[in-house]
Amino acid sequence: MAPMDLIGRCGIQFFGKMSASISHDLKNVLAVINENAGLLEDFCVMAEKGKALEPTRLKRLAEDVKHQIRRGDRIITSLNTFAHSADRESVAIDLRELLGLLLELTQRSASMQGVSLAVDRPPDPIMATTSPFLLLNLLWFCLNYAMKAAGPEKTVEITAEKTDDGARLHFRKLAEMGSGAGSCPAEPESTLIRVLNAQIRLDPDSMEVIVSLPAGFKGTDNVFNRNHGDTIGGMP
Amino acid sequence: MKVLLVDDEKELVTTLAERLALRGLEAQWATSAEEALSRLQTESFDIAVLDVKMPKVDGLLLKKQMQAKCPAMKFIFVTGHGSSQDFEAGALEVGSDYYLVKPLKIDDLVAKIKEALQR
């Protein structure tokens, strides 16, 4: 498959998976609000029949609703940021924020697999000029691999650091790097790596996946030489 | 009539249990498959209402595990799927005719519980 087609297919699959997971989360928020409203209706029916309303109980119900609204707002904000990540091909971003978004987007699927995710946020911004959507897609692949390879603690620690020639992202606390967790990078990741001008390394000593990013990314228009169709840097 | 509600959304199951109790059904809850199975060690239930998507052990697998302990128990599945169509096939595959889509309508849930128990 031509690289652009592969990236397009990967992107759609990634967007679909994220949307499905986020909509599930939102359904749960609405389901809880729905039951709180229903219980409030039940109390009203009982009050009409002469049972006294309990202000403390009503206040708690209102607090529960407000809590769910805050939760829903956080989910929608992440979805919005994620959707806008595809707006521009190349933009300067703080990788700490991108990891925060990745965490918000994947928390549910990690929890379904019984894996805890921890993002270590360094105090200073770690800027990189890159395609936020493609990088998120690549990091999602890495995270999926890391979750499958997670040790008995079932925790994956993600962190970013500045380097002389760009930045590095680490997925730590892996227990295995064998066939059980699949291969990394597989074909879709390899294409994203080339397009992003990044590198992936599995370090068996520290048991981590390391993604290295260059300081500046010039965008896929420059990487894909349109005069030669779907080729990357002269590669067939 | 004793109902066990299983969903990892604690606020959802506690409120639902309260609403079912107001409708004359004794309802208890668990927020994980592990907790649900441990409840079966000490108590018996007529029916379980299971969320399909739960961490570690999903509702479909939990049903099989619960059924092994309590063969007479009935089950209703609850799903957050956008449409019930894609879930329907899965529910039928594990031998359940009863499923509801979130957000729930309490009257529908009560009706399904009664229908399942009358079968």
Tell me the layout of helices and strands.
The complex is a heterodimer of chains A (236) and B (119).
Chain A: H1 3-48, H2 55-84, E1 91-94, H3 95-112, E2 116-120, E3 127-130, H4 132-148, E4 155-163, E5 166-172, H5 187-196, E6 199-203, E7 208-214, H6 220-223
Parallel strand pairs in A: 2-4
Antiparallel strand pairs in A: 1-3, 4-5, 5-7, 6-7
Helix pairs in contact in A: 1-2, 1-3, 1-4, 3-4, 4-5
Chain B: E1 2-6, H1 10-22, E2 26-30, H2 33-42, E3 47-51, H3 59-69, E4 74-79, H4 84-93, E5 99-101, H5 106-118
Parallel strand pairs in B: 1-2, 1-3, 3-4, 4-5
Number of helices of chain A: 6
Largest interface: A-B, 21 and 19 residues
Q: Which descriptor suits the 3D outline of chain B? A: globular
Alpha carbon gyration radius of chain B: 13 Å
Low-confidence stretches of chain A: 222-236
Q: Could you tell me the number of beta strands of chain B?
A: 5
* Large-scale geometry of chain A: elongated
- Quote the distance from N terminus to C terminus of chain A: 12 Å
Strand order of the largest sheet of chain B: 2-1-3-4-5
Would you give the CATH topology of chain B?
A: Rossmann fold
Helix content of chain A: 40-55%
